[in-house]
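User: Transcriptional attenuator, LytR family. Structure?
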Amino acid sequence: MPRSRWARLTILVAALVLLLVIGGGGVGGWLYVRSLEKQVQKVEAFNGLQEAQRPVRAADSALNFLVVGKDQLEPGEATSRTDTIMLVHVPHSRNQAQVISIPRDTWTTIPESPPEVGGGPRMAKINAAYAWGGTPLLVRTVEEFTGVRIDHVVLVDFVGFAKVIDALGGVDVTVDRPFTSDAAGGQVYQPGVHRMNSAVALEYARERHQFIDGDYSRMRHQQAIVAAVMQEVRRRGILANPAQLDDFLRATAGAVQVDRELPLFDTIWSLRGLGVQDLTMLTTPTTGTGMVGDQSVIFPDTPASAKLFAAVRDDTMEQWLAENPTALHPN
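Assistant: Predicted structure:
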């Protein structure tokens, strides 16, 4: 499945399924959506960040969102893992958006580390920032890595996302390689389309050890789950069924957290003209994988990344995309 499908739904979830409501909602629909705002948890995303340490704001009122997918705690872990990190750039025109995936294993400098490993800046995988310092440290790390000012943060909880799947009564997922599910009692899912409940679907989205390319398979499978959700919404006509729509929206609201500074529904309204056809999917340039000690990591292509993120800062992504057509993911 193309990366674009995962990014698309993340934006839809982050916008509280704006694209599912605005079309036929009218004033009543808008008031209903506003009523869900209290169900969206708020987080302190920028606590402790010093203005002098941060990049300047984007040119011409462009917006940059950090979208983070969080997974459940493993035994012995004190904080959730961040399996998905994306920078979403919305230009001043508000007529398009670029979604730039940052691989979670990207090897970079984390500005702070726990006292037991030194306390100061330390090279590590980029997702260590969230484990070491929560959302504020992840924001600071991504800002230093990209040189792009983060305006707002959206966190999507994969466990909460299971409730979205439950609200749909399961989804049809396209499996690309044989997969053995413990949640389904050891059932082997061969390549093809299979009906999955939330337990099996999330197990499939998390699994990496059964597949030779590990995290790359996990990324594809997350995309497959999200694509399946969107297909199920369309297939069942959720928009035309008030009861089902209510369940779906409330489950979606429970799967999202946003920063306290985000004027959620005003932002949604300003982006109401965006459709999936207006999204461009990219990945931070890399030079490939390798080992650092006993860790498998992904090395960023620093010169190429610098040019990409300069275009984000300057709000000149349209020109950058014209000059780098091979960087696009297929839709």
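The longest strand covers residues 81-90. Residues 215-236 form the longest helix (22 residues).
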